Write a sequence for this structure.
């Protein structure tokens, strides 16, 4: 028995499969949920790169995303898709990961533009994160510099189709192979990198804990991880914060 | 009334309200789309959204009050539906009346305030403080309107109000008898539904949808359900007070949908007001209109 199987026995990996259960009503219900999930997508657009400029035409009267049930949302808690439009710098990537971890599962990531695929024209830049799917599970790439709204819509339709068939499972990968993603994150942000979200506990909660959830990188995380503290609230400026005239 | 019939009505009335409310949400989104020269969402889109939100795997709760706030928000409206007479069903409308209804429509905002308070998100707190200020703004003209209607018909019983209007025909409709109060009511409706220019507590670009900012999954689903009820309650109340209620389901639905077209179409003509401007506007114009309207009220 390989290591992998051994751990899988200890921590059974529950992967949702539409139509997998024997109960006919449960299956109908699963199919209905999968269908509704695919037909109602709230996007959170993290528009930092130049590719973002193709989203307004895709949303407004020319192409009208709402026909497909896709509407923009403004808070990660409400969103299903994280849309990353273009290059992400190292600084931005931290925020992108924070945002991604706050979204409710099932969640999907779409990388728009060549820059998210391989760095695009920023290939040799020191400040740009080149391959987005090293740091978070990308369900779909829409390549192009920049992709036209038709391409964006086609990509979204492809994602809808994948969701309906139960194939867009990138978010499960994030929990199952957290160590892998965390390793890449630590490579960029340093060893003390931590997010407020307890991904490992969440993985256990979903039953997605696997032998690659923990590893050398999560060990490093656990060494320095501090529990989240409430921000201190103060009125007025302390003497040390006072701005010198 | 037989008790079994009453129970059936108490279950049916919120259910009907929810289904009609789904179509009202659809109409709202379709009107928005048409005004922006888009096609708009498919017919079942509001339902897809709600099923998807309840089917989410992560339900981030910030504590007991957060859960409870949503229950209050939806529950307040569910209770309000049983007080609104619709064709063939009166529920407990005869026992409640306008004053109880007025109280029940405030519960959702208060519930939301409780729930959002526990999220401890600054955007949510700003949103909810704006929502309560907005309530302060539209409730003054709203109460004047309710008082005027009650004085005119000599009762606070909604079933009586509908019966009197239907007995006298079109000339005895509230809107014909008290046009100024009806106009003030439309003002208050715009504020109550939180439509532009009074959209201060949603404000997606500025406070990230305010009270909704920390809501995902079933919490947001609950708010979507609440929105259906909210549109239904506001329009049916207006129809009951001013447009003669419903003789049958066809005219009733036609009237309720027609009432909502006004705030929804106006919404896209205006930008958003600031909170204090909203207060000034709602306390000035509809209140003046309502007070003048009160002078002309006779019974
Ligand atoms: S792929 Fe091209 S358009 Fe897209 S972000 Fe990179 S440089 Fe900009």
């Amino acid at each position: 028995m390989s290591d992998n199987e051994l751990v899988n026995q200890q921590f059974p990996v529950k992967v949702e499969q539409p139509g997998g259960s024997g109960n006919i009503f449960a299956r109908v219900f699963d199919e209905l949920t999968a269908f509704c999930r695919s037909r109602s997508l709230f996007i959170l657009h993290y528009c930092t790169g130049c590719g973002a400029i193709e989203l307004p035409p895709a949303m407004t009267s020319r192409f009208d995303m709402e026909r497909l049930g896709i509407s923009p949302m403004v808070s990660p808690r409400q969103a299903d898709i994280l849309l990353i439009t273009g290059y992400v710098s190292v600084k931005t990537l931290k925020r992108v990961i924070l945002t991604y971890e706050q979204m409710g599962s099932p969640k999907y990531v779409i990388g728009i533009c060549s820059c998210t695929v391989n760095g695009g024209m920023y290939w040799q830049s020191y400040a740009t994160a080149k391959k987005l799917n090293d740091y978070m599970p990308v369900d779909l790439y829409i390549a192009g510099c920049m992709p036209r709204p038709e391409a964006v819509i086609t990509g979204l339709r492809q994602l809808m189709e994948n969701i309906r068939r139960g194939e867009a499972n990138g978010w499960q990968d994030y929990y199952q192979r957290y160590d892998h993603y965390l390793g890449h994150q630590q490579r960029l942000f340093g060893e003390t990198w931590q997010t407020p979200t307890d991904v490992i506990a969440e993985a256990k909660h979903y039953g997605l804990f696997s032998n690659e959830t923990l590893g050398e990188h999560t060990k490093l995380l656990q060494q320095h991880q501090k529990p989240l503290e409430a921000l201190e609230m103060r009125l007025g400026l302390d003497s040390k914060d006072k701005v010198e005239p | 009334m037989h008790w079994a019939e009453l129970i059936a009505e108490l279950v049916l009335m919120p259910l009907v309200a929810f289904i009609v409310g789904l179509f009202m949400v659809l109409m709202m989104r379709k009107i928005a789309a048409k005004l922006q020269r888009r096609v708009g969402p498919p017919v079942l889109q509001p339902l897809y959204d709600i099923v998807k939100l309840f089917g989410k795997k992560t339900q981030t709760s910030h504590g007991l009050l957060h859960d409870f706030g949503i229950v209050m928000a939806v529950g307040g409206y569910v209770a309000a539906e049983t007080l609104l007479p619709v064709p063939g069903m009166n529920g407990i409308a005869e026992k409640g009346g306008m004053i109880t209804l007025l109280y029940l429509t405030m519960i959702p905002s208060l519930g939301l305030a409780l729930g959002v308070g526990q999220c401890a998100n600054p955007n949510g707190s700003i949103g909810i403080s704006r929502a309560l200020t907005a309530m302060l703004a539209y409730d003054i003209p709203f109460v004047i309107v309710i008082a005027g209607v009650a004085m005119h018909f000599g009762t606070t019983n909604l079933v009586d109000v509908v019966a009197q209007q239907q007995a006298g025909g079109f000339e005895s409709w509230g809107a014909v008898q008290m046009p100024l109060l009806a106009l003030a009511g439309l003002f208050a409706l715009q504020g109550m539904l939180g439509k532009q220019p009074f959209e201060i507590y949603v404000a997606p670009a500025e406070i990230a949808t305010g009270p909704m900012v920390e809501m995902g999954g079933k919490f947001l689903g609950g708010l979507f359900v609440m929105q259906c009820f909210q549109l239904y309650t506001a329009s049916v109340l207006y129809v009951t007070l001013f447009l003669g209620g419903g003789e049958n389901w066809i005219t009733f639905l036609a009237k309720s949908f027609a009432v909502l077209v006004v705030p929804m179409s106006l919404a896209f003509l205006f930008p958003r007001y600031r909170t204090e401007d909203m207060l000034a506007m709602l306390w000035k114009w509809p209140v003046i209109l309502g007070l003048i309207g009160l002078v002309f009220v006779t019974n």
Notes: Residues 57 and 217 of chain B are 8 Å apart (CA to CA). Residues A 49-51, 86-87, 113-115, 120-121, 145-146 surround iron/sulfur cluster (CB under 6 Å). DSSP finds 14 helices and no strands in chain B. The mean pLDDT of chain B is 85.
